[in-house]
Write a structure and sequence with these properties.
The protein contains nine helices and 16 strands. It has 271 residues and is α/β, with parallel strands linked by helices. The strands form three sheets. A seven-stranded antiparallel β-sheet has the order 6-1-2-5-4-3-7. A seven-stranded mixed β-sheet has the order 11-10-9-8-12-13-16, sandwiched between helices. The radius of gyration is 18 Å and the shape is globular. Bound molecules: flavin-adenine dinucleotide and FE2/S2 (inorganic) cluster (FES).
Length: 271
């Protein structure tokens, strides 16, 4: 059992939760995830580690309240215990001095790119973050991201802050006007990561995406998280979750994401 120390509703349907998990905080690296089971009746939910403090022994995650399990998680409050919180899992992001790097985050991925921005900045990279949402009030962690980046570029679909449109439109505009990045990394919804990969493909910029397929055990045994990458089957939990976006078979990913949609809707209605 893991204790919730702090929990905040940081944007509509988006929650930030800090837990007491010294063993995970000691080992965590940017890009890794945990598997959370909110209570004994819930599913296993993979969630990216957004921040951690080795001295305080705390781990922070940002999650979107979407179906039955995340709704149950959202109901827990500081002082409550989480049934199971396992990690860190998956391979970390690759960190080096690449030069100029663009990090793209949308939805829960804004929290997901934060540790990557911090680690890449420490390696001496020029870090440009693209933070996207439908509207300004759905953005969060602006101050945190600005502190660890050279520049944060905002994209809102309604134009209430920064570029009017999606982050992939903003990035495409920048690339077409001659800006160059040595590497692009994207964390967020599958469609956004697909579009970012397509935006960078003509420019030959290596693009890393953080894949979020359905996971069950998170240890490579069940096969639920399989993806096709460069024609080979890979398991996101142990081979990823980060892959080269130009090598991912997006048709397979996008169709598998919807495989349990009907059951998920029923499960939420029954909850
Ligand atoms: C490696 C990895 C890292 C991840 N990191 C994060 C993270 O940091 N933060 C985060 O928030 N998520 C993250 N995810 C995604 C997260 O794991 C899922 O969102 C979560 O498991 C959903 O669980 P659920 O039971 O609440 O929703 P589910 O019931 O599994 O529902 C999910 C899907 O069903 C659909 N759905 C459910 N109910 C309804 C309904 N009533 N009407 C219409 N559609 C519906 C949703 O569109 C959604 O696509 C990550 C996933 C992976 C694999
Ligand atoms: S989640 Fe089961 S193999 Fe990856």
């Amino acid at each position: 059992m893991i204790k919730i120390l702090d929990k905040a509703h940081i944007a509509p349907n988006i929650h930030c939760c800090t837990v007491d998990a010294p063993d995970i905080a000691r080992k965590a690296k940017a890009g890794q995830f945990v598997i959370v089971i909110p209570d004994e009746f819930s599913e296993r939910i993979p969630i990216t580690i957004s921040d951690w403090d080795t001295e305080a022994g705390t781990v922070t995650i940002v999650f979107l309240e979407i179906g039955a399990a995340t709704q149950r998680f959202a109901e827990l409050q500081p002082g409550d215990t989480i049934y199971s919180f396992t990690g860190p899992l998956g391979r970390p992001f690759e960190f080096d001095n690449f030069g100029k790097v663009a990090l793209v985050g949308g939805c829960y991925g804004i929290g997901g790119i934060y540790p990557a921005a911090k680690a890449l900045k420490e390696k001496g990279n020029e870090v440009i973050c693209y933070s996207e949402a439908r509207s300004k009030f759905l953005l969060y962690w602006n101050d945190k991201l600005e502190k660890v980046s050279d520049e944060v570029r905002y994209a809102t679909v309604d134009g209430s802050l920064g570029f009017k449109g999606h982050a992939y439109d903003f990035l495409t505009t920048n690339l077409q006007s001659g800006e160059r990045f040595e590497r692009v990394m994207a964390v967020g919804c599958t469609y956004m990561m697909y579009r970012i990969s397509e935006a960078t493909r003509p420019f030959g910029i290596k693009t890393i995406v953080s894949m979020n397929p359905v996971m069950i055990d998170g240890t490579g045994m069940c096969g639920a998280c399989r993806l096709v990458v460069k024609g080979e089957t890979k398991f996101a939990c142990v081979d990823g979750p980060h892959f080269d976006g130009h090598q991912v078979d997006w048709d397979v990913v996008l169709s598998r994401r919807k495989a349990y949609l009907e059951e998920e809707i029923i499960s939420k209605e029954r909850w």
